[in-house]
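agent> fetching stored inputs for the pyridoxal-5'-phosphate docking request
agent> found them:
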Amino acid sequence: MLLQLPTEPVSIQEIPVHKNVKLFIKREDQIHPQISGNKYWKLFYNVNHYLEKNPEKPYIITFGGAFSNHIAAVSAVGNLAGIPTLGIIRGEELQNKWRDNPTLLFAKRNGMNLKFVTREEYRHKEKLTEFLHQEFPEALVVPEGGTNKEAVEGVKMMLNERTKDFDYLCTAVGTGGTIAGISKFCEDNQKVIGFNVVNDTSLENKIFELTLKHNFNLIDSCFGGYGKINDENIRFINDFKEKYDIPLEPIYTGKMMQKVFELIEDDYFPENSRILCFHTGGLQGIEGANLLLEKQNRNLII
Ligand SMILES: *Cc1c(COP(=O)(O)O)cnc(C)c1O
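agent> prediction call returned; pasting tokens
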């Protein structure tokens, strides 16, 4: 079974703000119940092209951390399409603890095989990838976060007639595939802002290599580091949910929206700007984040 194009476009909702700009959020998190947000589009051509070429004995292999939205998404694709999947997971210590991790449990229940490797091994992903290509020459090996050229092509589907109507397009940035696709396929008059949640100085170059355009810039939204959640982040997410009835997760979309609010407050956007933020999904991560917060006796995400 190939990934399908949705029959209806996802909604674009206005978020009322007190300044003279218009803010909207495009609910890519609603694209699919299990394969949410940008991961759906990043996998779209990767999986479909692969299945068209290898209908007989498909096998999908990929990489990720213990809370990875990408691992969750690939496992769900495997389950829906009846394809065996293998997830290479960072952290040997999880070997006997995966049942305590909602993301890994979800992946397992979707039939994904999990192979746990040390952080050191994981750092040398290129070597691992080479090895996997030799060992499983027919398999589709998707890089970490799903970012590659086909992923960038898939992100084009997050843009449509309605998204042309905005001056700024905003997205959270992890490995850079999503912003690269938005940058590559948006209109010439649109500006793209990436809210990077990972401290990685090579990101800008990586993104440029995928889009070959200079229409984007990155705004540091790490808030203390990738995967780190501070109390203000939690407060913001819970407040946002209460006010607008839109859930955000703490690793990507929560940090992006918090930063967007800060920018609006600081008059970063010219008057009358129309701003569109992509809700890239990842809500499966909330449960795992709450388990950690609970252990630390901190407020939870509602
Ligand atoms: C993976 C992910 C991102 C980042 O996408 P990249 O293409 O890796 O930059 C943003 N938001 C959510 C919810 C994600 O899961």
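agent> quick read of the result: The chain has a mean pLDDT of 96.
agent> awaiting further instructions
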